[in-house]
Structures are given as structure tokens and as C-alpha cells.
Amino acid sequence: MIARLTTHLMAFAAVGTATLARAQEVAAETDEGGRSGGFDIKGALDAVEAYAVPWAMKIIGALVALFVGWLIAGWVGRKVRKVVERRNLDATLGNFFANIIRYLILVAVVLGVLGVFGIETSSFAAVIGAAGLAIGLAFQGTLSNFAAGVMLLVFRPFKVGDYVEIAGESGTVVQIELFHTELKTPDAKMKIVPNSKVWGDAITNYNTHAQRRVDVAVGVDYSADCDTVRAIFDEVVKNVEGGLTDPEPKVFLKELGGSSVDWVLRVWVNTPDFWAVHERLVRDAKKALDEAGIGIPFPQMDVHLDDAALEAFRGRSA
Questions:
Q1: How many angstroms separate the CA atoms of 269 and 258, rounded?
Q2: 92-119: per-residue pLDDT in tens?
Q3: Which residues are within 8 A (CB) of 22 and not within 5 positions of it... i.e. 6 or more apart?
Q4: N or C: the chain end with fewer CB closer than 10 Å?
Q5: Contact at 8 Å (CB) between 117 and 66?
Q6: Considering only CA atoms, which of 78, 50, 62 is closest in space to residue 112?
């Protein structure tokens, strides 16, 4: 298309040059002063050659430059979108970068064309720079959210469908926009979190890995035999529905608590099964202890009073 347009424009210029040459021959054939009927044909042709032709060529060149620049801008925009798609980045980010680059190319072409016509483009650049500075100051918070949104879309610490905890909020990611991130909480509330807050805070992604670890703490009575309790819990973690055998499930004696001997049951599961297995593990542990006659004590505190304190207490009660 560009080659055809260039050929037509060159042919048009050649015709114009030939026509001008013929007009000059006609002017030479008139009277010695180059006048015909009182009109200075030669002077008029000289004026056309000196002013009209150069300006016509500049206009044609400007139109060609604008057309070619428009084609190049569109081509570059499409290439940018393809690169973004190949890198599995968000389509919103691809469209944004493609449009930015396209408009920058068009602005550069327009400024170049204005320079060809002798128009001082530095003033336009200054105006554009001042406008950009003013917009940046006025929308500082918005631009901060935008920059953070670009970083999130490029580095992708989480994706739509992941369960995350960010900026003190937790929920399933519904949408990642350039200015904010939408979370759906477990109780079906929608949380809109500004991207600057998301990027500037710690992000916990519970779906990054295919497997997660389930830890359940269980306290048993001090009177229970530790070896017996361990054997019971070993059977529970090995047989819980949804638990994985690799990594191997384990049982730990964590500590001697204030009211109970505290154990930890640890099982690895596939990430989507986390809460279901957690519930089964708690249920199976309680059931196994009940069947073995081992109690789970309530929190309790022994208070000892000496004789003087006891007498003072009785005196206030009387």
C-alpha cells in the first residue's frame, strides 16, 4: 500500500513539473517582456515555482508521513499486544501499553511534520510536559494506584481465583484492575482494595503451591499415657480422608500446657482440600479420644489461699 501511494505521488509530482515546464515555454513564446495582454505570465509562473510548488511538496510529504506514521503506530501496537499475550500477562496491560506506544508514535510524527513547516515544536513539548506535571501532581494517589496495578499485572504475585491475605483483608481474588483489586470474602462480601495498598503491604497467597499443610492442636488430660495418645493420633493422621502420604503425616508433642498436654497433628493435603481435611482431622481426633476414654480438659486454674487471706475473705463475706 505504501509503495503504491509513493508511486502515485511521484507520478503526480512529475506531471506537475512537466506542466510547469510547458507553461514556461508558452511564456517564452510571448512578447519580449513576458507579458500577454497586460498580464505578467512569467512573473506569475516564477511565483508559483518559488512558493506554491515547494509548499505543495511539503503538504504531500506531510500527508505521506502522517499516513506512514499511522500505519507504523498500528503495527507496533499489535506487536506489543502479541508480546504481552505470549508472556501470559493480563490483556488489560497489553492494551494499555499498546495504546501508549501508539499515541507516542503519532505525537512524534505530528511534531516532526510541524517542524517541516517551520513551526517551533519546542513550545508544544513544553506545554505537554507542563500538562503532564500538573496532571501527575493532581492525580498523585491515582497514579500511585496505577503504577502499583502495572507491577501487579507484570509480576503477578496472585491471580484471579487465588485465596489471599493482603493489607489486612482476606478473600478470593475476583478481579485485578489497573487501579484496584477486588476480593470476595468467605461471607460473600466484596472488598475493593487500592493497588498501592496491595503492592505496599505483605501478600499471603494460599494458592501458590499445589499442596498445603494442615496443623491441628489437641490438648489431652495429664493423666493420659503419652505413648497411648501418640499411637491413637498416629492412626488418625494416617487414615484421615484426603490426607497425603507424601510428605508423611506426623504427630508432635508440643508442650505441657497450663491445663493439658498439647499435641499437634500435621497432615499435608492438596490445596483445594485444605478446609475439608482440617474439619475431618479435628472430628477424627475427638472421636478417637472419646473411644479410648481420654478426656480433653477445660482450661482451669488452681487458687491457693493461706490462712490469713482465707480469714480476711471470710470476714468480708460475713
A1: 31
A2: 667 777 777 888 888 888 877 777 776 6
A3: none
A4: C
A5: no
A6: 62
Domain holding 78: CATH number? 1.10.287.1260
**277: domain range?**
211-292
pLDDT at 197 over 70: yes
Task: Please report whether residue 67 resides in a domain.
Answer: yes
Please tell me whether residues 225 and 264 are part of one structural domain: yes
Question: For residues 110 and 120, what is the distance between their CA atoms, to the nearest angstrom?
Answer: 12
> How would DSSP label each residue in 100-137?
HHHHHHHHHHHHHHHHHTT---HHHHHHHHHHHHHHHH
What confidence tens digit (pLDDT) does each residue in 76-90 have?
Answer: 888 887 877 777 666
Residue 205 CB partners (closer than 8 Å, separation 6+) = 157, 158, 162, 163, 164
Quick one: CA dihedral 5, 8, 11, 13, positive or negative?
Answer: negative
Cα(124)–Cα(127) distance, integer angstroms = 5
Q: What does the angle CA 279 – CA 283 – CA 285 come to, to the nearest 5 degrees?
A: 120
Mean pLDDT taken over the chain: 79
